[in-house]
């Protein structure tokens, strides 16, 4: 089965991870510091806080933003559930706002309409790798006294009007799951230009421990002493995985370029198939494509999905609107809330896209799509 996504591991990656096994550090140590510094160079020079997953990054970012009970967080629904659930776990009320029909990203007008006096964070998602419409969303969030969070799980390596992902919002979260644009096996990061948010993220990912004697309430307890002033969790990334991340970052530009080539090859092969819509890209966007989200316009998405799976193509659908999950339905959220997101989901199918995908496989996938709709060479 040809998967829709797959990690790209080199001999250098293996060597980097193996080298850590010969050191005194397996958990958080110098390799994590190096990875955070390496990552910072790709996100506009902003500090990065490495954590154990993209979901952890969202939880940490919301905690750093002070999200809690009595507060509202505006979220785009066309996303993996964690963008919303991480805020809900902190006690916030999640307010879903619809997406733009072309990109599937949070629509600024919908986000503005969703604001309340209690809005703390507006969370946009770089769906499929296309950056959010950062300028109006930032203006909307800041005008309401809220922060803008960019869930960039799909998009490290991309730019928006020349600015890199990681330099567009108050908080940016990244994911390094194997199918993402680079991997640490499991892992993620929080990025911010604001020192207070970085400090909050570092504290929450390490149980909220205070080791600085000048900040402790009982500094004379002893040299071993550490305190917790606010609850946190253990979201520390191990050195083993951070070493893999630093090695992968050396090839991020090549990964991004190859993903763009594959994306363009699908575009060209499917341009004349009237039954589908190829992904949109707005002026000023240079995406780091994570997905190839083809849209089937005639209600035959399920048939095409089964046809491709039956021919050994491991396509996927990304994503069911977050509020459709029973956990949100049980809280009173109802279908029909965000029509654009629901229509996008009903049409969407992700074709295989990863750097090691051969041109011949791209052509085979495209030909199977064409043949399904009766288009032959």
Commentary on this structure:
The chain is of the alpha/beta class and 377 residues long. The chain folds into two domains: 2-249, Type I PLP-dependent aspartate aminotransferase-like (Major domain) (Aspartate Aminotransferase, domain 2), CATH 3.40.640.10; 252-372, Aspartate Aminotransferase, domain 1, CATH 3.90.1150. Helices cover 36% and strands 15% of the residues. It contains 13 helices and 17 strands. The chain has helices at residues 11-20, 30-40, 54-64, 82-89, 108-114, 134-143, 195-204, 239-249, 252-270, 301-310, 326-329, 339-347, 359-372; strands at 2-3, 48-51, 72-75, 93-96, 119-125, 147-151, 159-160, 163-164, 171-175, 188-191, 209-210, 227-228, 276-277, 285-286, 292-296, 313-314, 348-351. The strands form five sheets. It has a seven-stranded mixed β-sheet, with helices on both faces. It has a three-stranded antiparallel β-sheet with strand order 8-7-14, with no helix packed on it. Strands 13-15-17 form a three-stranded antiparallel β-sheet. It is globular. The model has no long low-confidence stretch (mean pLDDT 97).
SSE blueprint and pairings:
Layout: E1 2-3, H1 11-20, H2 30-40, E2 48-51, H3 54-64, E3 72-75, H4 82-89, E4 93-96, H5 108-114, E5 119-125, H6 134-143, E6 147-151, E7 159-160, E8 163-164, E9 171-175, E10 188-191, H7 195-204, E11 209-210, E12 227-228, H8 239-249, H9 252-270, E13 276-277, E14 285-286, E15 292-296, H10 301-310, E16 313-314, H11 326-329, H12 339-347, E17 348-351, H13 359-372
Parallel strand pairs: 1-16, 3-4, 3-5, 5-6, 6-9
Antiparallel strand pairs: 2-10, 7-8, 7-14, 9-10, 11-12, 13-15, 15-17
Family: Belongs to the DegT/DnrJ/EryC1 family.
Organism: Pseudonocardia kongjuensis
InterPro entries: DegT/StrS_aminotransferase, PyrdxlP-dep_Trfase, PyrdxlP-dep_Trfase_major, PyrdxlP-dep_Trfase_small
């Amino acid at each position: 089965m040809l998967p829709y996504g797959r990690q790209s591991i080199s001999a250098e990656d293996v060597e980097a991870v193996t080298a850590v096994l010969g050191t005194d550090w397996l958990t958080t140590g110098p390799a994590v510091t190096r990875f955070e510094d390496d990552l910072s160079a790709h996100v506009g020079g902003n500090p990065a806080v490495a954590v154990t997953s993209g979901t952890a990054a969202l939880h940490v970012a919301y905690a750093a933003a002070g999200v809690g009970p009595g507060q509202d967080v505006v979220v785009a629904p066309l996303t993996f559930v964690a963008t919303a659930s991480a805020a809900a776990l902190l006690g916030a009320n999640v307010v879903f706002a619809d997406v733009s029909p072309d990109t599937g990203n949070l629509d600024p007008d919908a986000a503005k309409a969703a604001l309340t006096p209690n809005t703390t964070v507006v969370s946009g998602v770089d769906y499929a790798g296309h950056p959010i419409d950062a300028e109006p969303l930032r203006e909307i969030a800041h005008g309401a006294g809220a922060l803008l969070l960019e869930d960039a799980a799909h998009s490290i390596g991309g730019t928006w009007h020349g600015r890199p992902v990681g330099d567009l919002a108050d908080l940016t979260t990244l994911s390094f799951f194997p199918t993402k644009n680079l991997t640490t096996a499991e892992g993620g990061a929080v990025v911010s230009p604001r020192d207070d948010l970085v400090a909050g993220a570092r504290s929450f990912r390490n149980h909220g421990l205070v080791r600085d004697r000048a900040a402790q309430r009982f500094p004379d307890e002893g040299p071993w002493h550490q305190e917790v002033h606010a609850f946190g969790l253990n979201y520390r990334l191990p050195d083993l995985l951070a070493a893999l991340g630093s090695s992968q970052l050396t090839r991020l530009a090549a990964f991004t370029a190859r993903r763009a080539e594959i994306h363009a090859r699908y575009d060209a092969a499917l341009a004349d198939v009237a039954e589908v819509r190829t992904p949109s890209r707005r002026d000023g966007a240079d995406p780091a494509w994570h997905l190839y989200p083809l849209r089937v316009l005639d209600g035959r998405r399920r048939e095409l999905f089964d046809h491709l799976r039956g021919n050994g193509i491991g396509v996927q659908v990304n994503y069911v609107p977050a509020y459709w999950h029973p956990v949100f339905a049980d809280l009173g959220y109802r279908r029909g809330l965000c029509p654009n997101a629901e229509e996008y989901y009903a049409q969407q199918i992700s074709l295989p896209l990863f750097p090691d995908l051969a041109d011949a496989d791209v052509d085979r996938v495209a030909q199977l799509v064409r043949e399904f709709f009766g288009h032959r060479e």
